[in-house]
Amino acid sequence: MRKPRTLCELFQYSLADRPRERAYLHKVQGSYRPVSSRAFADRVEVIAAALRQIGVQPGDRVAILAPNRLEWAAADYAILHCGAVTVPLYPTLQPAAVQHILNDCGAMAAFVADAEQLQKLGTSKDLPHLQYAILFDPPAPQTEGPRHILSLGEFETRGAATHDPEVFTRTWAAVTPDTLATLIYTSGTTGVPKGVMLTHANIVSNVLTVLQRLPIGPTDSCLSFLPLSHIFERMAGHFTMWHAGTCIAFAENVEAVPQNLVEVRPTILISVPRLYEKMNARVLAAIAEAPPLRQKLFAWATDVGRRKVQAQQAERSLPPWLHLQYAIADRLVFAKLRERLGGRIRFMVSGGAPLAPAIAEFFHAAGLFILEGYGLTETSPVIAVNPIDRPRIGTVGPVLDGVELRLAEDGEILVRGPNVMQGYFGLREETEAALRDGWFHTGDVGQVDANGYLRITDRIKDLIVTAGGKNVAPQPIESRLKSSRFIAEVVLVGDQRKYVSALLVPQFANLEAHARTLGVEHKSAQELVRAPEIVQLYEKLLGALNVRLAPYERIKRFRLLERELQLETGEITPTMKVKRNVVARTHADLIESLYARSPHEGVGCPPTDAGELEDSLAGDSASKS
């Protein structure tokens, strides 16, 4: 197959060399309908013609404000084929954030999902540059003023009337590898979002090197549910899958993913750790309420599976008896778990945040291989990913071919390669701070083992420095705790304090079920998290972890939050990353109470039996070996 240099060539070469009847699947009136590559390409050409008709020129910025859907992909490719710049926005953003980004980049047009999203654009005074808004879902409201508002149907009718195949080809052929392809505004875990400038060459290089590492092809299918606004899903689940000839199915929404998995039966799943954590928690919660015999069967199967995984990770030969035991466990337990995911998963990819090794080990034991990777928006995004034939749990794999990596004296990961951004839009000082001597400074701390596998240990800005001068890396500790079915999120605090404390967000559904078994009566989440039996449960979980930590890392006190961290309050990003500074500000009084002299929840003496320790941390007695 020809090697593309731009995203336009990537699209066109795959269209010519790998035509397919099922390029996409999308829900229409309750059932999935296929869309051929040719039909999709025809729609891209029409939308591109309509964009040229309204005056979109090479280099102009055009935004997309919508959840994942077929029209999102078509609009993106159409913008790129005009030589214009796609500016994706999370549909969960508040109006002020939407308007800030659109004003910052000077977008002249925007595709929006519906009338509700249209309201976020405000008035023409709010966005003087924005001349056109195109709605995916009609009807377009009747408004007066300088801004033109059209439904996508009207827009495509305009495009069909003016489409000239020769002009279309001439326009996309003029796009060069150095042409700016997209402006992606970072989710802003540490400050105001910045527009990351990625060229066609940046993204194409990442697509090609990822495909060298991961075996993806026309016989595969993928369920798309992570936001296309994020570079991880857009590069891996959008551009890479199209280039490989893989069928892309759009999930209806995040809540419908479990059902859509059964309907689509994908072979590849791309996600962030939060999904895998929820899957694991649901399985453990179901087993906790199962009959005793089923609990024992599950405990035996997971023990067998983990021993197999641990032997494979150590590259030891499996004894015949373990092979036989695993075959039985697979048939009775793990095969049923795989069926819940459609029954055809070849491998799953995890990125965007650290994945708890215990979660990865559980899925590997079930024959569901999670390949953890690492990258940033600024690196298009993938820097490293585990190979399917030799994955190493707890690492993010070797760096991709063509990407250089070195560690600074303080352990910070520095990267250089064709996937590294051009800079931050309109921010010279920030660009110079991030790109020094040709190396991109990631802000992450890592280690490289003897086999060349990269391990992420934390972010420099997240490191906790206690009053005693000890450095505590919070992410590994938080990741370990989140393997419990009773913990949804953890935020460690303690910078410039005498000791480390924790804010814990319960997995409320699982905690509610457990509270019923304990006979804990409560009328609200507030009463639930303050119940003595519940506090003791979390004391046990933290105590189990503390015995494995250095004295200065141990969690001395904790608080259970009465609600989940919320996107609306800015406590998490659209990709489920915790904004520590916002959490610290939102829960400032609660954090102060952890360091007050009056008694509060603390972590008492942990259990001493090794098996009990492991069970308490796993949060499920059924996992006891």
What is the helix fraction of residues, given as a range?
A: 25-40%
Unreliable parts: 604-625
The major beta sheet can be summarized as:
8 strands, mixed
- Secondary-structure-based class equals alpha/beta
Bin the strand percentage: 15-25%
Give me the count of strands: 26
Give the N-to-C terminal Cα separation.
50 Å
User: What is the CATH domain class of the largest domain?
Assistant: Alpha Beta
Q: So how many helices?
A: 22
Q: What this model shows, in words?
A:
The structure is a single chain. With 625 residues, the protein is an alpha/beta fold. The protein has three domains: 7-175 and 214-270, Rossmann fold (3-Layer(aba) Sandwich), CATH 3.40.50; 272-368, no CATH class; 463-623, ANL, C-terminal domain (GMP Synthetase, Chain A, domain 3, 2-Layer Sandwich). Helix content is 40%, strand content 20%. The protein is built from 22 helices and 26 strands. The strands form six sheets. Strands 2-1-11-10-12-13-14-15 form an eight-stranded mixed sheet, sandwiched between helices. The protein has a five-stranded parallel sheet with strand order 4-3-5-6-7, with helices on both faces. Strands 16, 17, 19, 20 and 21 form a five-stranded antiparallel sheet that branches. Helix 2 crosses helix 6 and helix 12 (292-313) packs across helix 14 (357-365). The longest helix is centred in the middle third of the chain and has 22 residues, at 292-313. The radius of gyration is 25 Å and the shape is globular. The N and C termini lie far apart (50 Å).
